[in-house]
Amino acid sequence: MPNSQQLQIKGMSCASCASRIRTALRQLDDVTDVSVNLASDTATVSGSAPTSVLAEAITAAGYQLDSIETQYAVSGMSCASCASRIEKTLMTLPGVISANVNLATEQLHLSLSQPLSLSQLQQALAGSRYQLSELTAHKAAEHGASQAATRFYQAESWPVLGAALLTLPLVLPMVGLLFGADWMLPALWQWLLATPVQFYFGARFYKAAWQALKAKTGNMDLLVAIGTSAAYGLSLYLWYSFDGHHGGPHLYFESSAAVLTLVLLGKLLEKRAKQRTTAALNALENLKPTTATVWRNNSWQQISAAELKQGDTVKVLPGERIAADGVVVKGDSHVDEALISGESIPLHKTAADKVTGGAVNLDGVLEFEACAVGAESTLAKIIRLVEQAQGAKAPVQALVDKISAIFVPVVLLIALVTLLGWGFTSGNWQQAILNAVAVLVIACPCALGLATPAAIMAGTGTAARHGILVKDAQALEQATAINYVVFDKTGTLTEGKPELMQVTALQSSDAELVALAYALSSNSEHPLAKAVVKYAQAQQIALPETSGFSVVAGKGVKASVEQRQLLLGSGNWMRELGLTLPTTHIRIQGASVSWLAEKTAQGPQLLGLLCFADKAKPQAKDAVHKLQQSGIKVAMLTGDSQDSANYIAEQLGLDNVQAEVLPQGKAEAVAAYQQQGYKVAMVGDGINDAPALAQADLGIAMASGTDVAVSASAFTLMHSNPELVGAALQLAKATYRNIQQNLFWAFAFNTIGIPLAALGLLNPIIAGGAMAFSSVLVVTNALRLQRQRF
Q: How many CB atoms lie within 10 A of CB 381?
């Protein structure tokens, strides 16, 4: 009987949408029936088609499948083939849209159309050695703490140490041969030393190989198990068939033992190196406070930070971490937000200032009202973004996955050809077996599987440490091609805190002009409006009553003030109304100018002008210069006046500037640059920048801006330093270059090493060492990104 799946679909608006989805799904193989419910936004699909295939068809039709994102820890993997097998197995489950296993972090990321329990997922992997478990925040830290209490024979280093102690007497005679000394042990002693290495310390390889065979697949463990067993078995055969003449038999116990020891050593070094790639994420996790002091039941009480609720009043003493995002209601102190925002200088906080959970209170006592707690806090969102980026797959990984899927069968075939080729052509079956063993043990799918995720983890972790959050691996690739950066002006290149510098009334007093502008500005969130409000309040000007307030997009605001119809906005708007602007009254160079007008029976009349000045950020000039030095053109888009834009552009040395641009005009300007052949990055922080951020090849948002801008961007800068734009592009290029280097080394070890082994030019011990070294090299190369300097 066919299965039935119910899918939640986003984007449907009418009956034609439902019909389009129904048609797209019915065209698929293995789909027997489809019904689409527009009222509940669901599609019920009967048949055996995988959910991933259904999701692709829905996306191709122009709609999206609503998904649940979950993550689990995975144990029991040894190479890229293991990761590929887990993905393929889980993708057959109804409800699984995508399954991505990160070999470096040993984590599984699932995108589901319906909830699936851990037991259901584990059931699908029944019979394999892979285990899924809940991903706990402090799993690594707990593991490290428990490691100290672990008995020596259960520690992760024990297999390497034990195997090495037993292997050393087997390998030393090879060193003695260099000096003409015969230190060769009797066959019995060789067997006694090699057997525990083969079947006790090497048991993990046999267990994993058996599970792979039962699943009719292959992995690195299978190659190691077959290769070392062949060398061990050949030694037993030669010992058994020895006729007692011409000294002792020539055995190869040292080869099997040395290969296993080297592989175990390589896996240990690889594991420890992989743990270092997650250092940035662990550092963020460690910022989470465990307790909080809260005012409840008329007293201060210490509770678990997880029990905090929005609206709680929280006290923070000097040296404590702030337990949640909030607004200071009492107190005065300096706060260190370095590990969250990248801002190295402690920030002064007092009443009405915002504080961020995870930051350290340095020298005073603060009381704040909790505004965002738990999963909604800034720190939790940052951790989710870093986890998402570190678990993502770069586009190039698709090729690696395809190669990994056929890697082991191909290596086994090459080993078989090597065995038969050498055996039949030379008649020396001992050498034939040794050469086949060398082919098996030098092949390393691990290096291929680690090449991309290790670099992405190290790169995105380093970025997070410097206050740069990367949404996904694809953004890293896009960033490498950027040759044109477009900045918004206000709040991005400038401080975003303009001050009212000049008030000029044309028909009444300056005080009356400020009062009327104050009335219009009091309901607006625009930076210029805030500057008017700040100025009026400093002058202790009374706020007139206002009615009928509205915003005219991209132009200004209008309202009725004391029975007068007033408009406050840009020069373009005033010209549209037919007014002639007396620009000679402007005394501030590069000022942003707002004009106040009144609608009368005789037509609109100009009442006066207000001039604002906004300073360029101190880092802006260096940021632009560094981008230009790296061959990137820099432009600025702003809705501000042409004079104000030109003034900032001349200060910073920009290549291009466009002023008085409406929000939709910013997206059009970005598209125009793209049509000229440029790969464009847009940098902004406001709602009006969101269309341009989405249009650009790479969107970069200042986290100090709106959530809309951040969600439309591939990169988020945690503090408003424009120099981070160049740093983000530089790090992206370094990360992608590191991926290419890792893939080169991974392919080089296999494409050069396997033929050399097949030709009999590699001893199995050297082959085993090279195999272990290749994985360590790839991860160590990725770790160089943690020392990246900007």
A: 18
